[in-house]
Amino acid sequence: MPLSQSMESDRAFVAETEAQILELATQISALERSVSLLRKTQQAAKTRLDSYTYPVLTLPLEIISEIFLHYLPPYPTPPPLTGSLSPIRLTHICRQWREMVIATPVFWRAIDLSDRPIRLKDVASLAALWLGRTGGCSLSIDAIDWKPITSALIPHRSRWEHMRLHRLQDWPRIFEESFPTPLLQTLLLLPTSPTSLPIPREIPLALIDVPCLRTVELSMPGGPYPSLPWQQLTSLNFRSIFLPDCVHILRQTPSLITLRCYIRYKHEDSPPPSGIALLQLNSLYFSCDFVHRHESYLNLFIVPALRVLDVSEAVLSTTPIPALQTFITTSSCTLKKLRISEAEGSRKTYEQAFPDIPDITVIPGDESN
């Protein structure tokens, strides 16, 4: 190509590329202005967001605390240690609320240590952490009687209000005579299994200085039974008990208002005695693990204030309706609610026999479970 033509081509290329560069520079300048404008608009939005306060964050912490209390199970029911319904979950929302929850003792006053999928030593550490946050609150505790756990619980025993102990092993330590529990209202004691004796019978058990104790639940067929102020109890639940032990204890419980009792049968049992006066008893739930016998086990009681009776038909002897009529007459009670479980008789039969009882339920034997 001649030199003149080559130079002309290069001049045209330079002019063309210069025009393209100017066009791109113009576009870049326009984009930079757009970016600058967007940044200013974005910053204005950020400033508005930073100045905005969610309405819930304007509430006093006392109100937030009350709302959070309704998230937890109602006291004295303990929440789970972790997960849904646990106060631990509330500490994950924000820093402000975490500090408030940790510093509020009522969130930690109920604790469930009875059955955990994590290691027991971790449960003991977690128990110490929770209890350290309870301040001076009364406590509701559901626990396994295992030494590291009871070691964490015992320093707080003066604040126990509701205590449920499972898989009992360390009874002498729990029931030593120097053990004041002045706030204790509810006590539940369950051995490792329904038929196991938790400790040797010769070891004495005593629970003293329990002026507020009103509710006891036991599952210890054959004993041994702790020494309790039976006379002040208003609610008693024997999940499983032999008749002689039941009679012995009930003779010491004149203040009972509610009694739940499941009688286990022993071949050497003598016929049930009669005439245990529970003059304030309002509700009686009574069942057994044996079939009909000739004696009515309701003969145990004289209960003039009874209004609710829930029994398995087996405790009424082989002639349940006459036995029940005799019981009502002897006690001079006015029943408002009658429930018969494991029944061979029909509801109509009971309604005809007891027309003055307004609420009668009869559950046939094949439906009782």
What can you see in these coordinates?
The protein is an alpha/beta fold and about 375 residues long. It has a domain at about 230-369. The protein has helices at about 5-50, 60-70, 85-90, 95-100, 120-130, 145-155, 170-175, 245-250, 320-330, 345-355, and strands at about 110-115, 140-145, 160-165, 185-190, 215-220, 235-240, 260-265, 275, 285-290, 300, 310, 335-345, 360-365. It has an eleven-stranded parallel sheet. Strands 8-10 form a two-stranded parallel ribbon. Helix 6 links the parallel strand 2 and strand 3. It is elongated and about 135 Å long. It starts with a helix and ends in a 5-residue tail after the last strand.
Task: Please outline what is shown here.
By secondary structure, the chain is of the alpha/beta class.
What topology does this entry show?
Blueprint: H1 3-51, H2 61-69, H3 87-90, H4 95-102, E1 110-113, H5 120-131, E2 139-144, H6 147-153, E3 160-166, H7 171-174, E4 186-189, E5 215-219, E6 235-242, H8 243-250, E7 258-264, E8 276-277, E9 283-288, E10 301-302, E11 308-312, H9 320-331, E12 337-343, H10 347-353, E13 359-364
Parallel strand pairs: 1-2, 2-3, 3-4, 4-5, 5-6, 6-7, 7-9, 8-10, 9-11, 11-12, 12-13
Helix pairs in contact: 5-6
Protein name: F-box domain-containing protein
What integer is the average pLDDT?
83
How large is the count of helical segments? Answer: 10
Note the run of SSEs as H and E: HHHHEHEHEHEEEHEEEEEHEHE
Strand content: 15-25%
